[in-house]
Amino acid sequence: MTPAHKAPRRGARAFAATWWGQAWIDALETSTLDSARLSRGRTYARKGMVHPVTCLPGVLKAEVEGSTPWPYDAAVHVPVLTDAQWDTLLDAVAARAGHTAALLDGEMPEDLVADAASAGVPLLPRPHELDPECSCPDWGYPCKHAAAVCYATATHIDEDPFLLFTLRGRDRDSVLAALRARRRAASTAEAPSPEDTGTPAPYGVPARDAFTAWDGTFTPPSQEAPGSPDTAASPHTDGPEHSPDPQPAPLTAEPPRTGPVTLPDLTALMRDTAQRARGLADGHALTLHLDAADDAVRIAAAGASEKWFHRLVTSTGSDAAGFARLVRAARHGGVPGVTTARTPLTPDPAALAAARTVLAESDEPVPVRTWRNRLTLDAEGIQLRHGPDGRWHPYARETLAGHTDWWPCAPAHSDPLAALTSARTATGR
Length: 429
What we know:
This protein has helices spanning 19-30, 35-46, 83-94, 97-104, 110-118, 144-159, 162-167, 172-190, 194-197, 207-213, 263-281, 292-301, 306-316, 320-342, 349-360, 416-427, and strands spanning 54-56, 59-64, 72-77, 131-134, 369-371, 374-377, 382-386, 392-400, 403-408. The protein is of the alpha+beta class. It folds into three domains: 12-183, no CATH class; 263-338, no CATH class; 344-427. The strands form two sheets. A five-stranded antiparallel sheet has the order 5-6-7-8-9. It has a four-stranded antiparallel sheet with strand order 1-2-3-4. The radius of gyration is 26 Å and the shape is globular.
């Protein structure tokens, strides 16, 4: 385990007391040659101008005070790890019992990070992976506000190295649960079989084995009362009817009253599972690899109740406004819409140039400001974002609860002019 060293009072190292916290600072300072903006960012962080920092999978965000009466919204995006990379990282953590103990003690083992990096899994961010964003007019990369968020975050990373795991896509509880599952699997593999010990085999069949043995047919449960003699198929049909939208069979028993899940909750989950399975069968596989946070957005976008909406917000650690923005993005643009709302992408330059040409040559050409995948019409309060699906996702500047931000406002289009027309129609501009 690596001991934490006290940081000096001034300079970049004033924000990092440990080697992993300093590695975070090094990644920030190596990502840019603009030392002046970094110096201003250190000053802002040191003066306490950074409001509480929110750490979510793939992004840090906070409000930062500046030269205006209202704070700016600053964020720093970090790529999340793939499932394969997570498996490699978790295997590296589980390989030594001391690694988990060190993490729980608030320390990051240096050999753990080195082993993961040698396997191609960067737990600590590399310089080119820090992607800043800010609502201020400064186009620095990063601007002083985003730099201030990074410096302020170093102290939190010192105190809780699990924040690095959260940034990479999985929070503390998810990581610990995965490590416990690995330990159980290892102990089960080492334990003697029931035949060797004389104990009876467990009741039932593992789900994986049942799925493997499934012949592709399905017989729905009988709607008759238990013990009814008439359980055969109707003589007028050759098999079960298939409705356009799969509906789960009604539940016949209440769940345990000691748990937080009610019968309507289970029914809603069954309906969602059936609809998702139908979509997968039709070839819509984008939702197959969603993490817990994005799947919560998908469930809310499908029409979750107000109670479920608030539970999904709480369970994902999101703020209500940010979660609502992603839900609206999902309704207008599906999974690509959520990605477009969450991350400023780097589009194909040819697609961006073609879109600018189309807008410039329209019947009513308007000034357009360009940044990354975003075309902003400041005079109209409209923005078009180019998504990973190759479509243009319309946004409008809206003020909710006294806070102004960009919100998805209409369905995405492959034609930027059609997307602009949709945005104007939706906003009445």
